[in-house]
Design goal:
The chain contains ten helices and nine strands. It is of the alpha/beta class and 243 residues long. The strands form three sheets. A five-stranded parallel β-sheet has the order 3-9-8-4-5, with helices on both faces.
């Protein structure tokens, strides 16, 4: 143990841990999971109530009486409700990019903290949900990325709330373009019919929590929810890191 601590001390001197965002040196007690400093963590823009009853975004005052945002009024979303702890901007956007596109899967535990804290603070009704299902990647995309970020997040949430993750029930059988490159209408068409359910008996009459990293237009989550409901699922909620 003494030798281990000595070697670790030498490594920390030569390669000190720095904040993944601001690159400042991290010191004991001043960082989250030894990856991000408290200063940057506190600057993450949180999604605050009141929330749209459909997509989960913050509602501005003129929309309070309807409890739904203008975007959700004019379109059909197949999930019952979505929740997100953060606004997709600034630091959280950088963290998700590092997690998703630069292979830093170890950020999963840190980002999952945001989801778990949000569930507890706002009483997201996970007790009534039977299963957690991560939005799947197409096998081609999974080979490129080597991991599914939604699955990592799902595993941490399941561990915290004693839930079961269904990794193989929902499948993405068609390779689609990256949604970030497309406009709203193009996103809807891009993912249409891209999901299928392989084990319908698993979710028949069950309540499900779909997990993903970002909800933008809601097209991907909505199409996944459509496939689940078409296979017999009852309630489908969506939880993402940011919207």
């Amino acid at each position: 143990m003494m030798l281990y601590n000595f070697i670790k001390g030498i490594i920390d001197i030569i390669y000190p841990k720095v904040c993944i965002i601001c690159k400042e040196k991290l010191t004991p007690g001043s960082a989250i999971d030894s990856v991000i400093c408290m200063g940057c963590w506190k600057k993450i823009k949180r999604n605050l109530p009141p929330f749209c009853y459909s997509c989960g975004r913050h509602l501005e005052k003129p929309n309070l009486t309807k409890n739904i945002c203008p975007s959700c009024i004019r379109r059909k979303l197949y999930f019952d409700r979505a929740f997100s702890p953060c606004v997709y901007d600034g630091i959280i956007k950088e963290l998700i990019h590092e997690f998703k596109y630069r292979g830093k899967d170890y950020l999963g535990i840190t980002l999952a903290r945001l989801l778990i804290e949000f569930i507890k603070e706002y009483d997201v009704p996970v007790d009534y949900l039977d299963f957690i299902i991560p939005i799947p990647l197409h096998k081609t995309r999974l080979r490129e990325r080597e991991f599914n970020q939604a699955q990592i997040l799902s595993n941490y949430i399941a561990g915290e709330f004693n839930k079961t993750v269904l990794n193989d029930t929902l499948r993405r059988h068609r390779l689609t373009k990256t949604q970030t490159e497309l406009e709203e209408n193009e996103r809807i068409l891009n993912v249409k019919g891209s999901f299928s359910v392989s084990q319908r008996e698993d979710i028949k009459d069950k309540n499900v929590l779909l997990v993903d990293d970002v909800l933008t237009t809601g097209a991907t989550s909505s199409e996944a929810a459509y496939a689940l409901k078409n296979a017999g699922a009852n309630i489908v909620f969506v939880l993402t890191l940011a919207n």
